[in-house]
Amino acid sequence: MxxxxxxxxxxxxxxxxxxxxxxxxxxxLAGLAGVLGAARLVTVTGAGGVGKSRLxxxxxxxxxxxxxxxxxxxAPVRDPEFVDHAVVEALGLTDHTTRLPRETLLxxxxxxxxxxxxxxxxxxxxxxxxxxGELLGQLPGLRVLAVGxxxxxxxxxxxFPLAPLGEDEAVELLLSRAAEQGTAxxxxxxxxxxxxxxxxxxLAAELAAGRLxxxxxxxxxxxxxxxxxxxxxxxxxxxxxxxxxxTPGAPPSRHRTLRLAIGWSHELCTPQERLLWxxxxxxxxxxxxxxxxxxxxxxxxxADDVLDVLTELLAQSLVVREETPAGVRYRMLDTVRAYGAxxxxxxxxxxxxxxxxxxxxxxxxxWCELDWFSPRQHEVxxxxxxxxxxxxxxxxxCLAEPEAAYLGQYxxxxxxFYWAGCGRLSEGRHWLEQAVRLDAGHERSRLKALWVLGxxxxxxxxxxxxxAALQECREEAERSGDATAVAxxxxxxxxxxxxxxDMARAESLLRSALDRYREIGExxxxxxxxxxxxxxxxxFQGDLADAVLLCEDVRRVCExxxxxxxxxxxxxxxxxxxxxxxxxxxxxxxxxxxxxGAHSFHDLLGSVLAVELLALVTVVQGDAAEAAVLQGxxxxxxxxxxxxxxxxxxxxxxxxxxxxxARERLGDERYEECVAQGARLVREAAVSxxxxxxxxxxxxPPAPTRAGRRRAEVVLPPAGDQRA
Length: 724
Fold this sequence. Notes:
Strand content: 5-15%
Helix content: 55-70%
CATH architecture of the domain at 3-161: 3-Layer(aba) Sandwich
Shape: globular
Radius of gyration: 29 Å
Structural class: alpha/beta
Number of strands: 9
Strand order of the largest sheet: 4-5-6-3-7
């Protein structure tokens, strides 16, 4: 969750920062804020480029409820099935269970006062209407501000149609945008006539402002007049899908006025600028410079020229530059992108560009999978997060084309680290299940998708689906002689046995898998996690010393390679061992490192297990009340992980020991009060509190006896199942 500044106001949520001045619209802003205060569903409608998104964001700030304003950008979403996923993603939610995304939303929003902004839904009306109707029907604290070209058609909807700017405001906007680009232009009859011809549409005025670097207002008006005369009779040079047809001499509609302004900007572009504009339309959402240089170069546009041409499109407001956690990204407004897509199709170059787009993101996934086992794990996670709309686009294209289906299987499997390591299990399973259903004639790619599907199903607690996928993977891998797939299938089968409390089988399978990894020279985060899981199995069987040796080795290798994700689980085992040896201070140090790492990757299982063990360490150090608070916080986190403590005696033992000690010191009533206090903490607050060093209010009890230590060795919970 984040706090953002918008128009001088701080608002809790994810609204983007404003990069340029907000001009005019004071009456509309007050009107929309008033409607938002009276209705739970308001839809701002209007033509493309009329300024709906900017006005909605401003009004949302004025009406922000206590739990903030959260914007869902739906323009890059192509598949209606991903509407729910997009909302979950925008809210920053992580859920590792088999619950559907909508169930996750209902659970998360149940007690919150929140404004949800759905921006750019018009191509997904049916899916969005169904979602909004269900959410509003069950969540009294939720309000929805929808932004699109048409109403949603949901009961109780208040429609707020947005008209273009008045003449004075349109002139102010054009002059303001020109000044921001370093061009001083005075108000005058020609500037006002330009704004009138452009019907006060903000995007059209901004495009015109970009041309005032090279043209005087008079020249700009003359060219615009030529464009009107040409296009009202049917354009000779425009793609057939974008020609403007109307009665000669009649003023075009606002939609056609915008298309006219965009087409006029297109005419004023150089040939290279037109090429790049059309080719950029293959991207979904934001894109990076390196991707543009690869995907869009060639056939009339050299890679070395791409940056200069892109800079010109930026100066003309045809492309927008944005700062993201993954670095600088660019995007095109939907109306501008759609115009470029028409030209790309008309040029007969769309299929080639889509292939290049696909190949770039296949390469990106390959690089990220390799780089996950490095000091750049967080950078990799941020990059995949930023590129997710384009990766989805590549997956859709691959899985929809029989000849490219094997590439879709490879891509879905290569993103295992993101599905499993960054809390995207539900989406990962969606793609993986689609991929393994296809017979693409490329066994190796399908086998990878199969073992990753088994892995994801384990992390979701779906043991039946996991067993089916892993058995099929192993049988097919042995038949085809794929030693790598055999090793991974065996490894994940050992992980499955571990979470099912079959320690002997888990140890046997994990040792065999680790031997296979050594034989084929495999070393990565998966291999090290297998060693941590083996340590779990050894600890369950009473050999905590062996578990420590295994995890110290994992910790050393992780630190040598800069690996952070698997390291958190090794730290968890070492922390438990430190507690069992009567050293709670060292256990706390290890656990705070573990928790910080797990939380940074949105690893819910690693986080909740660390909080549970920190509660036990806290009661040992003498603060029973704080221990009970942490147990309450953990209890709130478990539903997003799965069955609380998995119904396992191994997992339950540390929790039960902590509870027994805390109840003994506090009494039942006070203990329950503290647990209830912790249960009110959201995950961010719970993690922050758990990472704070508590103050001991009572002297610590004696260190565990030797008998107690033997008991601890038997009940060590298996962190390595990684439902993260």
